Amino acid sequence: MESCGTREYRLLAKETGRFLEEPQVGFRKGQGNALLLVILLMLVLGLTLNATVRLTQSSAYKASTYHHRVSTELLADACLLAALNELEKDPDWVAGFDREKLGDQQGHFSLHFYTDLSGLPGPEESVNNLKGTTARNGPQGPGTVAPGTAHLVAVAEAGPVRKVVQTIYYRPRVEDFVTTNAGLVSEGATRISGNIDVYGVSSMSSPDRIPAGLHANGRGADPSVTTLAWNSSVGDTAEVSGTMSTTAGQVDLGGGAANITGGTATGEDRIPPPDIDISREVRLRASLPSGGLSDGVGETSMGSGEFYVGGDVTMNGDLILNDSTIYVRGDLFVNGTIKGTGSVFVDGDTSFYGDAIVSESNLVGVAVFSEGYVQLSGFSGETFMNALAAGNPSVGTAWDKARSDVLNIYQTMEGLGGGSDDGDDAVRDWLDGGGGSSFPTLRAVIAPIPGETARFLEEKFDHLSSRFAPGDDGFFEELSEPDGAGPNGAMAFLERISYDKLGYSFFQGIVYTNAGMAIQNEVEVLGSVWATGNAQTSPILVDGFLLNPGDIVMNHGAKVVLVSEYGRSMEDVHFGSPVMTAWYER
Amino acid sequence: MVRTIAPKGLTLAEILVALALLSVALLTMVAIFTKNLSLAGKTEEMTVATELGKSMLERITVMDPDLVPVPSYFGGHPVNADGYPPSPYPSQTVDGREYQIEVRTTPRGELVLVETTVSWSRGRLSLASVIRP
After folding, report:
1. ipTM greater than cut 0.85
2. I want to staple A213 with a disulfide (CB 3.0 to 4.6 A). Which of A243, A346, A443, B25 is the partner?
3. Residues 32-71 of A with CB under 8 A from B
């Protein structure tokens, strides 16, 4: 059916006989082009816009993800550090963390322990086997967590990002210290004077002897330099059941009578010393109580347990340990006696002037661990009295008078003729003119102070009080006999007046320093001695000898009994901080 | 007589409709582009802020923690106030934008929580870690 327009057009064409353009139906040609163009333009712009938006959104997502990824890394690291901290405090720790947050930071971390001894933990469960003696099942499979280790799996989440980090911590055991046959190991040079006696025993309860020797790693030493020396005198002996060895340099036995069963050796392999961060060990105990440990004069008796002091400790007198472990974040100076059962950890230098008799306790296996130098020497009465006088002016006056009396009397005697018999009169004249002796005053001051060091000084002052007693010059008179002998006898007595005493050191356990060791006393160690030189510290001058980090100097002999099974009898005992042995992430 | 019908141009109505559509489309696009640019800016700012916070946190964690609360140096300029960085906190300008950095340390048992907060005109973010004292 044709439309009306078409019919009209055909009629018109028939009438006129002309061809006319056929009219378009609907739109005319060209109509709607603008709209079409706009739509096309919009399409192109829309596509471009869509791409740009997607690109920007992708960048924004990346930026957000980057922030979350950094957050999860920080969270995972924090989780492992916090776990390590807990394990250091308590090797049995299995409480773990559950969605712990860190301040305002987005996200959280978790660490869950698997505690079933027989089952198989999941891939994101941690296993603590620090105190175990056999391997346990771990997140990596059956029997994958070695004894003495902890397999930790930290899971951190922030926004859409999730991060799983695994690490294995290992806690050194006490027996790790005694896996060598050297009872004494220095990273630098070792010089010993006097008698040497070194041997080993398989355990504290067994008399069976095993070879044990001395070793110097001789760090950086020229091969021509002596790194292990015995400076012997006539009559000194050296008995070493093992080897006296060094990595480089020379072993010098001097001319003494040495019986070195294992002989001497140079060019030996280095014995790697254990690397213990004592400073960290000490810092970790910052929350412990002091237990009364502080500067002072007299006697301090520690209770059982662990104690911490956040600074230097200077004690004149006695420090008694009763199954006590003390941590000092500074230098520890004891001028007197330190004795008892316990362990001493010092972040700085350790100086014991007097007797030091310390036996490890609580199965820790540590006697003294010092980040700085260890110096053992004789008791200094002058230092003790100066400390006492510092807090008491009247004591200071008496103490000054006592010393000046002795000096002045001596100088008076020096002025007398060689044939004079007036030495005793010189004492009398001086005392009468100077108001008498002050030794009784000092004796009275010392008397109430507890401790064996105070008793030593009390006896000393008591003795001198009787020698300088008013109205009695018989002692000095005797010293001046026969008549005409002069004051030399009295002068010799005055010269010998000393308030000091030699010290003796005995340690049962490991004596370890990250610096060097200078020992002026007789010393006996049941355990082992280590000077690693790991500490960044300067050399010190000890009796004219430059002591470098890693050096050991013993001026009055050394008796070292290496206890090879020291740690083996304490299989559950691990010392020190867990150290990371492996780290990997998924 | 021959009558021809010449093709006509665009009608006013056509142009008006096209213009209206185009205007709406362009306005929408401009709005989206503006928002997009803003988002891109924020993205860049967030990346810069994360870097600054992370860098500061790393710097603090390798320091002796005891040094954190005492006067120290920041950006090579000595400062004489408490805290590290001290208050008022120093700022860093990156690509013409100023970022304020704040560090807070809080005891957390035996450990210390170190938190850096980076603030800028359009945002704020925090990063935290723990260190051994």
Report:
1. no
2. A243
3. 32-35, 37-39, 41-42, 45-46, 49, 52-53, 56-57, 59-60, 62-64, 66-67, 70-71
